[in-house]
Every structure is written in structure tokens, then in C-alpha cells.
Design goal:
The complex is a heterotrimer. By secondary structure, chain A is α/β, with parallel strands linked by helices. Chain A is built from five helices and five strands, in the order E-H-E-H-E-H-E-H-E-H. Chain A is 40% helix and 17% strand. The mean pLDDT of chain A is 94. Classes of the chains: A alpha/beta, B alpha/beta, C alpha/beta.
């Protein structure tokens, strides 16, 4: 039995602009993935807890408020603390290019900025998730 | 009837013949696309004629400027009398920093202020709340107490400017702070002009900065209506917003339909609270988006005006003409901006500005070219403001009222949008009104379906977005974006701490407990919020009292 | 430390991973259950079912918040439909249970039904066992919003709560058609809506019509969004538990469930053999040809294939 890729789509922080998160959730579903959608206003702790309980292959976070440098790395650290560093962590939203190298250094493996076709995200997830051992 | 019947039958025959002939030609040389659509994905015909407006009645459907049903505009002189208010939405970091930006904007010819608050403020948290981490001062200015508000408007005479505040769930608190600051300046509440957004339903639908459940939220709104009608008569107590609905991906017709459905819900809530229609309806204002499809957008504003006038007159039996006039603010569409080749956004904003002006807007915010990347820099904001000033002073479109009226296409499109919007309103009525329709997720799902269809059309290349999916170039990362000093969070926290140790805490406690009692009962909470604000109770403290009594809203998401 | 020891310690990551193994047919999943099965049986299992839009997630959220006040550890399995076309799914039940995500005493797992009928997924029953072994005191299974009578949750839950809302009209008819038998407790949610009283009366009448039974399901009202009616629901569930235990039905149910679990496993094993075995597949194809040519019949074919498997 082949298990679909499971992705947690989360909105960290307080911004309520969830169009991007919802569009990507639909696109991942249409690509045959199981998407766990968390809704708005998630703390890094909530995101990490959900990722572990759901045993997802990927955590995809959408953030437009400018709080990305604070919140995204925190999720990576919390996952690491729980030994869940095999989970692929990616981000998207209004994130200036100059912040991306720093985020990658912190373990966010890809950052998708406005205008990225959903297919690019789908393909990235497919080719970067670690098979569950 | 606008057109003579005989002429119409001649025209009909001519069109039929022409269509048949052209069909033949199209066999050999087809058009660029099989189907042409508007920005909202609605099909567009090759051309329009009086046949498309066959049932239109000039006086019933259009009227004259300043006359019912206001299709052609709400004032008899429009921009010949006074240009629209050029109102640039701004605010970031601390109150001092935002204060400097406001003074800059006023110097540059901005005719009204528009305050952007940071997310913790919009959700009723103080800057030291755990959920505020990383968010303080990011998308707007951080306001924790009256002290911040005093700094925000320092040196800005509140009897001279009109101020719009994008604040919803805690609107009552920020309005109270504004009234208190004015009082300190020696300006009475009767003199104050401005708007609070105060539109909670669209927060549930699209924008996400809600706090309380629907019922207590609606009560706060009607409390504000009532309080202002008696004490702040020139204040626009709500700005019923389609802007965010459109940003979330809706079509133009959905923007009108869902926004007016929200408007109906507010009117019904106010009537239920015992207010008289003509006491509050003239202070209702609207807020729409401007997207790139110029003609569709112009039609949208005209349709919204006509439909609202009809609803107010027929459904709510308003008598005062001002109750029937849909007055609106416009913001150019943030979601239409591209992060790629950002200077192209200046052109988009120009087209959108034209749409808003040709559509008869009362005030306008133009987005800056860099807003798909970060908060705008001063240079970018200046260009955005100059765009309005060029359209106002050089394009000539301001010299004549509603110049596109009578265009067969514009009139047909206006009617089409009005009808489609009315269908949405009927559907929402059948579901029990806007609040219930949101609760079931109907509205959100309709918007999401449109958003997803749009995304797919861009990804398939069917819809071209210049610089993004066509005409791309290799470009370097943009430089010189505005960055909010990360120390803002700490600064706010420190100020909060010193405020709490310097104020009369017994008085704070007293006012908060009085507010608690009021929330549990039915009296108007505005005076009690004003007392608490003046005692320097913080926004978070006041909202916590209300959270305690009212509970918190949970969103409905239908994917 | 291995994953089994971790599960016994109550480690959530271990539980999550074992459930993943079960979901993906990784033999390690069942290996764990085989070894640890004796540790299961402590948790009380509550099924929450009902039509789409009845407010199951909100009710579950409220229910769990109240249960958590007693200190009991709670696990939730929330099942959502899978798209039959792409195999993908959007599992959105967590949205309504946001506050629970920060509670260390709560574990939430969302599952796509993955083509399995009956409101749950194939992995739901073994996942219940995993969470039981992890040390959950209460396990709540929220089913797909179904309208049909085939609700498998009854086979795995001690108490099944049937949630409905006023004004679904036709759904009452559906309930009549079979769901009436499966609810141990009925809840009319969103009871502030018009027609709540009528819905309650209709349900009561149907339950009365259902005839004599030692447990007469109560029909409750709730407004889950405002947290109203939750205490009464908890009392009703407790009363049902008490009834089950005192009447001996609890034991009987569990024995029945074990039996059906074994039978399910056998069924599955047989089908796997039939489907996976190239030889049986050849036989199957050959029989299809023969039957299509009117030379054979499906009854004999099935007998022959079964006989062949048994020889293995």
C-alpha cells in the first residue's frame, strides 16, 4: 500500500492572509498528497507538535507579516529537539530575497516567494521528502 | 426605454448579418483566443450594442450624478467640486516613527491620514503577549495604550485632518483612544472626521484579524453606531470592505455581492438594536479594490452604487438620500503586484487608479511598487502618491462626471455585475444572512474556488502576468527595502512596563471592572471603554476583559 | 531505545511513527502491535459521527477540553474523505481543535479515509490500539461526515455519539434508515437554530418506535461553538459507560469487537493473497474468460480459487 506524502500546511504568526496557504493546500491535494491544514495563528510550538503527531513528511509554512525570521527557524529548532529533523521544512510568502540565505542556514530548505507556480512547490516536495524509515 | 423599437430591430438584423459574415472569416483567421474573458474570468463578447442594454431605462437605472440610484456618482459635481481624498495607508514600527511618516505624507500633499496597525494591535494583544513575538511594529504601528496614540498624533491637529483607521475587532478601543487624544488637543468629538474600518464580517471571511464571536462583535459595532450618531456625528462608523474579499481571490461580482451582503447584516443588526435607519445609514461607508481590468472595475463601482441605493430604498425603506448613497474608499489591488520587475507595478497602479477615479471613488490609496516584497520605502510611496496626483491634474478624467456612462459595454457590464451580485445576496439571504453564510463556510468556499481557478489560469499560461509568467528577465535581488528595526518589540515592551508602574493602577482596575459588568449586560460599552482608555488601561487589558465575557471566534474553513 | 519501549512510555513521536507504518502497510506496524497488544484495553473509546457540517470537530474540541480538566489523557483520530481521483486529501479538523495542539495531554492524528468506506480508514482500528498502548485514557474517533448507514465506528467504539443539526430535513430520513441503531447518545448541535426542538422530538419519536432495548439513547441539545451542552453530554457518555459495565454488555461488546477484528484481518489476508498472487491472478483471468464465454460460472470459480489458496 503506497502512502501518500503528508504535508502540514501552517500559518505561523498573526497574519490572516491565507489565500496562498489555501491555494497551496489545494494544489498539494490535487497532486495526490494528504494535506493537514492548521488554520491561522499558529505558534511554532503548535506547528511542531502537530507535525510530530501527524508524522508528516513536510511542513509548509506561509507567512506574510514579516515575522518570518523569528518564527520559521523556531519551528526547525523545535522539530530538531524532538528528533524529528527528517521532516522537510519549507516556507513561502512575502519574504525579501536577502532573508532567504539566513533562513536556509537555519534549516528552512526552500523559500517560495510570490509568483512561484504551485507546481514548483509540488515538485520540490516530491523530490526532497525523506522516505519514512 | 432608452432605444427606439424600430431602430432596435434594424440593429438586430444588422448584428445577425455581421455575425454570420464574421464567423465565416473566423474560420480562416481565428481570433487570438477562443474565449475572451475579463479579469474575473467572465466571458466578453466581441463588441456591445444597444441590444445589450435593451431593457435599460435611463432615469431608473442611471439617473443623474448626485441623484438616485446614484449609478453616475453620489455628488452632483464629483471631482469638479472637490478631488477625491488621497489617503495613503501607512504605519510601521513605533508611534514616533509612524508620526514622522504621516508628517511626510501631509507635506507631500496627502489629504487624509490612514493608519495601519500592527497585527498584535489588530488582534487586541499588547506588545508583550507571547503571540506578539516577531510581529510588533511589522505591518503597522504598535499601539498598546493611549500613551502610544498620543505620540502617534503628536503635532497633527485632529480638527484639521481626516483619519482613517484600519481597525476592526478592537475598533471601539482605538476610536476611544482617538477621541481621548483629541480631547487633550482641545478638539471636541463633534469636530472629528474620519473612518474606522470596524467590519468584522470580512475579517471572518478573508482578513483574519478577528477576536470575538459574531454576536458580541455585532453588538460592539452597533454600540459604536449608536455612540457616534450622538457624540461623533461626522465619523464614518464602518467601512464595509470588499477590498480583502477581492484580495482573497474573489471575482468582481463576488466582491460586490459579499460586501453588500455584509452591509445588509450590519444594517439589520443596527435596526434590531433599535436604531433608526436614517440615523446611522448615512455614516456607513464602503471600501473596494481596484484590479487591472479597467472596464470591469469601473462597471463594478457603478453596479455597487446602484444596487446599494436600491437595497436601502426598497428593502430598508430609507428616506434620507444620504442613506442610499454608497460612498467608498478604494485601494489598488495588492495581489496584482508582482515581486518580479517591481517597477512594472507603477503601471499597474496607474491603470487601477484610473479605474477607481472613472468609477467615482471618494478616496484612494495607491500601492507602492515594492509592496510584493516588503513595506514601502518613502521613495516608493511618493511615486504612488504622484500617480494619483498625475491622474488628478493631468489626465483630464476628472473634468467630466462618469465619462464612461453610455458605453454599451460599460452599461451592460454594470447590469451584469449588479445581477450577479444580487444572486449572491439572495443565496446568502436564503442561508440566513451573511453571518450564517460565513459560519457554514459558503462565502469562503466561493472565494477560494475563484482564487484557485485564477491560480490555475496563470499557471497554465492562459492568463498572462507580465514579468511573472511571460516576459521574465534575470534580475538581481531588489535593494534598499524598508526594514523594521527588530528592537521595536523590546522598546514597546519597556514602555509598557514603565506605563504600568506609573499609572494609577487602582483606577485602571476600577474602569476595567466596570467595563466587565457592562459587557455582561446590554448597555453601550463605548463610554466605559473611553473611561478605561483615559485611565491608561492597555489595549490588551481591555480586550482581555471582553474576551473573558464574550469568548473567542473560531474560523470556518472549507477547502 | 526502540520504538516499542518508547510507545509504552507514552512517547508521541513513537506512536505517530507506528501509525504511519500501519497506514503504509509497513510490516513493522503490526509487529509492534503483536508484541504490545497485551498493553491495550485500558482506553475508553468514543466515536463521534454525523453528517457533514454537524459541528463534529467543534464538539470534539469542547468535549476534550472538559475531559482534560479531569486530568485524563486524550487522543483524537479525525478522519476526512480522500479524493477518489487524485488520492489526495485536505484534512482540516485540526483547525477547530487549535487550543488542544498546545496541550501535552492531547494527541491528535488526522487520517484520510483512503477509499475505505464506513466513515473511518482502514488504519483507524489499529491506530486506536496504538494510542491505547501509548497510555491514552480516552480515545475519540471523529468519522468522515457520512449519511449512509454503514458506520464502522460502532465496531470500535464503546460509546458512539451521533451528532446532527436542525434543519437537515432529508438527513432525518437517512437517520431513520439505519443510523438510529448505531447512536448510543444523540446530540442536536447548533440548538439555537430554528427547528431544534422539532429535530429533538423527531429523534425521540424514532427512538421510541425502535422498540424495547435495555439502553434507550438520550437525545441532547448542544451549542458546541459556545461550549453549551457539553457537561450534559459527558454525563450521558458516563452513564452509558456505567450501563455497559453493569449490564455486562461492555465485555460482550469487546469480545464481539475482537472477533470482528480477527475476521477483518482474515478477510484482508485472503484478499491480499487473491490480489497479490500471480498464480491466482492468472486463474482469475482464465475464469473471467471462461465465464464470459458461458463455459463456467462465478460460483465454481470462487470455490476453485479458494481451494487453490488453501493448498498453499
Amino acid at each position: 500500500m503506497e502512502r501518500p506524502i503528508r504535508v502540514l500546511v501552517a500559518k505561523p504568526g498573526l497574519d490572516g492572509h491565507d489565500r496562498g496557504a489555501k491555494v497551496i493546500a489545494r494544489a498539494l491535494r490535487d497532486a495526490g498528497m494528504e494535506v493537514i491544514y492548521t488554520g491561522l495563528r499558529q505558534t511554532p510550538e503548535q506547528i511542531a507538535n502537530a507535525a510530530i503527531q501527524e508524522d508528516v513528511d513536510c511542513v509548509a509554512m506561509s507567512i506574510l507579516s514579516g515575522a518570518h525570521n523569528t518564527l520559521l527557524p523556531k519551528v526547525v529548532h523545535l522539530l530538531k529537539e524532538e528528533g524529528a529533523d527528517d521532516i522537510l521544512v519549507i516556507g513561502g510568502g512575502v519574504i525579501p530575497d536577502e532573508d532567504i540565505p539566513g533562513l536556509k542556514e537555519e534549516g528552512i530548505q526552500a523559500v517560495f516567494t510570490p509568483g512561484t507556480p504551485t507546481q514548483v512547490t509540488v515538485d520540490f516536495i516530491k523530490s526532497h521528502v525523506t522516505p519514512r524509515a | 426605454m432608452l432605444y427606439d423599437e424600430d431602430q432596435m430591430s434594424v440593429l438586430k438584423k444588422a448584428v445577425e448579418e455581421e455575425t454570420a459574415k464574421t464567423q465565416e472569416k473566423l474560420q480562416k483567421r481565428p481570433e487570438r483566443k477562443e474565449v475572451f474573458t475579463t479579469g474575473s474570468g467572465e466571458p466578453v463578447k466581441r463588441y456591445y450594442t444597444p441590444l445589450d442594454n435593451a431593457s435599460m431605462d435611463y432615469m431608473d437605472d442611471l439617473g443623474l450624478p448626485g441623484e438616485y440610484p446614484y449609478t453616475r456618482g453620489v455628488q452632483p459635481t464629483m471631482y469638479r467640486g472637490k478631488l477625491w481624498t488621497m489617503r495613503m495607508y501607512a504605519g510601521f514600527a513605533t508611534a514616533e516613527e509612524s508620526n514622522r511618516r504621516y508628517k511626510f505624507l501631509v507635506e507631500q500633499g496627502s489629504s487624509g491620514l490612514s493608519v495601519a496597525f500592527d497585527l498584535p494591535t489588530q488582534i487586541g494583544y499588547d506588545s508583550d503577549h507571547p503571540l506578539a513575538e516577531g510581529e510588533v511594529g511589522k505591518v503597522g504601528v504598535a499601539i498598546d495604550s493611549l500613551a502610544d496614540m498620543e505620540r502617534l498624533f503628536d503635532g497633527i491637529p485632529l480638527d484639521k485632518v481626516s483619519t482613517s483607521m484600519t481597525i476592526n475587532a478592537p475598533a471601539a478601543v482605538l476610536l476611544a483612544m482617538y477621541i481621548a487624544v483629541a480631547e487633550k488637543q482641545g478638539v471636541s468629538a463633534e469636530q472629528l472626521r474620519g473612518t474606522i474600518q470596524n467590519d468584522i464580517l470580512k475579517e471572518y471571511i478573508a482578513r483574519g484579524t478577528y477576536i470575538f464571536p459574531t454576536e458580541p462583535s455585532m453588538r460592539l459595532i452597533t454600540d459604536i453606531f449608536e455612540y457616534c450618531s450622538q457624540n461623533v456625528p461626522k465619523w464614518n462608523t464602518i467601512s464595509i470592505s470588499g477590498y480583502h474579499i477581492r484580495e482573497a481571490g474573489s471575482t468582481a461580482a463576488q466582491e460586490v455581492g459579499f460586501t453588500l451582503a455584509d452591509g445588509i447584516a450590519y444594517v439589520e443588526a443596527a435596526l434590531k438594536a433599535g436604531l433608526h435607519i436614517d440615523d446611522f445609514a448615512p455614516r456607513l461607508s464602503f471600501f473596494f479594490n481596484a484590479h487591472n481590468d479597467l472596464l470591469e472595475e469601473v462597471s463594478k463601482y457603478r453596479a455597487a452604487r446602484r444596487l446599494w441605493a436600491r437595497i436601502m430604498k426598497d428593502r430598508f425603506k430609507a428616506q434620507d438620500p444620504r442613506s442610499m448613497q454608497l460612498k467608498f474608499h478604494t485601494q489598488t489591488g495588492g495581489s496584482t503586484l508582482t515581486a518580479q520587475q517591481p517597477d512594472n507595478n507603477i503601471v499597474r497602479v496607474t491603470v487601477q487608479t484610473l479605474a477607481a477615479v472613472l468609477g467615482g471613488t471618494q478616496s484612494l490609496h495607491t500601492n507602492s511598487r515594492d509592496e510584493a516584497l516588503a513595506l514601502p520605502t518613502e521613495d516608493s510611496v511618493r511615486i504612488a502618491l504622484r500617480t494619483q496626483q498625475i491622474v488628478a491634474n493631468e489626465s483630464g478624467v476628472t473634468e467630466v462626471i462618469d465619462p464612461l456612462a453610455g458605453s454599451y459595454y460599460i452599461e451592460a457590464k454594470t447590469s451584469e455585475i449588479e445581477e450577479a451580485a444580487m444572486k449572491y445576496i439572495e443565496k446568502i439571504d436564503a442561508l440566513g444572512g451573511a453571518a450564517k453564510a460565513i459560519d457554514t463556510g459558503y462565502i469562503q468556499q466561493e472565494i477560494m474556488d475563484a482564487a484557485y481557478a485564477y491560480q490555475k489560469s496563470v499557471e497554465s499560461g492562459e492568463r498572462i502576468v507580465v514579468g511573472m509568467n511571460k516576459y521574465q528577465i534575470e534580475e538581481a535581488s531588489p535593494k534598499g527595502l524598508l526594514r523594521v528595526d527588530p528592537a521595536v518589540g523590546e522598546m514597546q515592551k519597556n514602555q509598557l512596563e514603565s506605563l504600568k508602574s506609573n499609572r494609577d493602577n487602582a483606577r485602571v482596575k476600577e474602569t476595567l471592572s466596570a467595563l466587565h459588568t457592562a459587557c455582561e449586560g446590554t448597555e453601550n460599552v463605548m463610554p466605559l471603554i473611553l473611561d478605561a482608555v483615559k485611565a491608561y488601561a492597555t489595549l490588551g487589558e481591555i480586550c482581555d476583559v471582553m474576551r473573558d465575557v464574550f469568548g473567542e471566534y473560531k474560523q470556518t474553513v472549507n477547502l | 531505545m526502540d520504538v516499542k519501549a518508547k510507545l509504552l512510555e507514552g512517547n508521541k513521536r513513537a506512536a505517530a511513527r507506528i501509525i504511519t507504518w500501519i497506514e503504509s502497510g509497513d510490516p513493522r506496524g503490526y509487529e509492534c502491535l503483536k508484541d504490545l497488544y497485551a498493553h491495550a484495553g485500558h482506553a475508553y473509546v468514543i466515536g463521534i459521527t454525523g453528517p457533514p457540517g454537524a459541528g463534529k470537530s467543534t464538539l470534539t474540541d469542547q468535549l476534550v477540553k472538559r475531559i482534560r480538566k479531569t486530568g485524563k489523557k486524550v487522543s483524537i483520530i479525525a478522519v476526512d474523505p480522500t479524493s477518489p481521483f487524485t488520492g489526495g486529501a485536505i484534512l482540516g479538523d485540526r483547525i477547530r481543535m487549535n487550543d488542544l495542539t498546545s496541550d501535552a495531554g492531547v494527541f491528535i492524528r488526522s487520517m484520510g479515509a483512503r477509499g475505505y468506506l464506513g466513515g473511518i480508514s482502514e488504519a483507524t482500528a489499529p491506530a486506536i490500539k496504538v494510542l491505547d498502548i501509548m497510555g491514552s485514557d480516552v480515545i475519540i474517533v471523529e468519522t468522515v461526515g457520512v449519511g449512509q448507514s454503514e458506520i464502522d465506528i460502532v465496531k470500535h467504539a464503546d460509546t458512539t455519539v451521533m451528532v446532527t443539526v436542525p434543519g437537515l430535513g432529508d438527513d432525518i430520513q437517512t437517520i431513520k434508515a439505519g443510523i438510529m441503531e448505531i447512536g448510543d447518545v444523540f446530540v442536536v448541535n447548533k440548538a439555537d437554530r430554528d427547528g431544534a426542538k422539532r429535530t429533538v422530538l423527531e429523534l425521540e419519536a424514532m427512538l421510541d418506535f425502535n422498540g424495547e432495548s435495555p439502553w434507550r439513547p438520550p437525545v441532547l441539545q448542544a451549542i458546541a461553538q459556545q461550549g453549551k451542552g457539553i457537561e450534559v453530554l459527558i454525563e450521558a457518555i458516563e452513564k452509558h459507560e456505567q450501563f455497559l459495565r453493569e449490564s455486562g454488555v461492555f465485555e460482550a461488546h469487546r469480545r464481539r469487537n475482537i472477533k470482528s477484528e480477527i475476521l477483518e484481518l482474515i478477510k484482508k489476508a485472503v484478499m491480499i493473497r487473491v490480489n497479490d498472487h500471480s498464480e491466482t491472478e492468472q486463474m482469475l483471468d482464465a475464469y473471467v474468460d471462461q465465464i464470459a464465454a458461458h463455459e463456467q460460472n462465478p460460483f465454481t470459480a470462487a470455490e476453485q480459487i479458494m481451494a487453490h489458496i488453501q493448498f498453499k
